[in-house]
Amino acid sequence: PYAAPLHPKWMGYYHQYYGKDIPVHLSGYRQGMDWRTNIALLQEARPDVIISSGKLVAEEMAMLKKLAPVYDASHQKKWREQLLATAAYLGEQGEADNWLEAYSRKVYITRNALKKELTGSRVVVVRLLKNNLYLYCSPTLAEVLYGDLGVHPAYHSAAGVVYDEQVQLEQLDEIDADRILLLVRQESETLDYWKRIQCTAEWKNLKAIRQNQLYCLPSDPWREYSPLAHERIVDAVRVMFSEK
């Protein structure tokens, strides 16, 4: 892109690898916080087309449409369809097809490489926020970790494949997961809780903890829903599970 939201902390990967190639850096600090400043920058940049995630207030969208045609990629709900539809809009269908073929090959190779390691192993993703634990499954986890890579979930929610449910340590123990993937919110109250909980007998006695099968996940790319984030997750899963 000629212009895109970039932030060294919240969008570290994109800032590091693509920042020098993007002439206009829009504010990427919190969704929608600096949209008026971004509009002013785009007005100077005079874009030919604007790609939107759809998470815009009505006034912002109206102002963007005055600058250039706006394509809302969120009309498609699944990430593959989003990629293909956006590529079609930009006249780059071949690029998208080639990328998806390469992604499928990487998934196939990774599934086979980890088949022996993960056979019979049940995984649960847990996130820490403030003083609470949550059983967690985002669209990314459902479609990539449990879908494409075929990792076996230790927990199935009545709410469906996507869920975010508060859980107590006793309940987590009953789930009896072989591996725990953990997301810890990087703010003081949550980090203090994380320090405390690690010292408790209930945490230490969890099957995955006793067997040294705890994996701490960074929010980037695990909390993102995009083709590149999903490719990076496939790479991360192979390294993560191979090392242990």
Question: Count the strands?
Answer: 10
- Shape type: globular
- Mean of all residue-level pLDDT scores: 93
- Return the string of H and E elements: EHEHEHEHHEEHEEHEHHHEHH
Give the termini separation.
38 Å
| Structure class | alpha/beta
* Unreliable residue runs: none
Strand content: 15-25%
So how many helices? 12
Q: What value does the Rg take, in angstroms?
A: 20 Å
Describe the sheet with the most strands. Answer: 6 strands, mixed
What is the helix content? 40-55%
Protein model, in words:
- This protein has 244 residues and is of the alpha/beta class.
- 50% of the residues lie in helices and 18% in strands.
- The strands form 3 sheets. Strands 5, 6, 7, 8, 9 and 10 form a 6-stranded mixed β-sheet that branches. Strands 1-2 form a two-stranded parallel sheet.
- α4 (79-90) packs antiparallel against α5.
- The protein is globular and about 60 Å long.
- The relative contact order is 0.10.
- The model has no long low-confidence stretch (mean pLDDT 93).
Topology:
Layout: E1 3-6, H1 12-18, E2 24-27, H2 35-45, E3 50-52, H3 58-67, E4 70-72, H4 79-90, H5 93-118, E5 122-129, E6 132-137, H6 139-148, E7 152-153, E8 163-167, H7 169-175, E9 179-184, H8 188-198, H9 201-204, H10 207-210, E10 214-217, H11 219-222, H12 227-243
Parallel strand pairs: 1-2, 3-4, 5-7, 5-9, 9-10
Antiparallel strand pairs: 5-6, 6-8
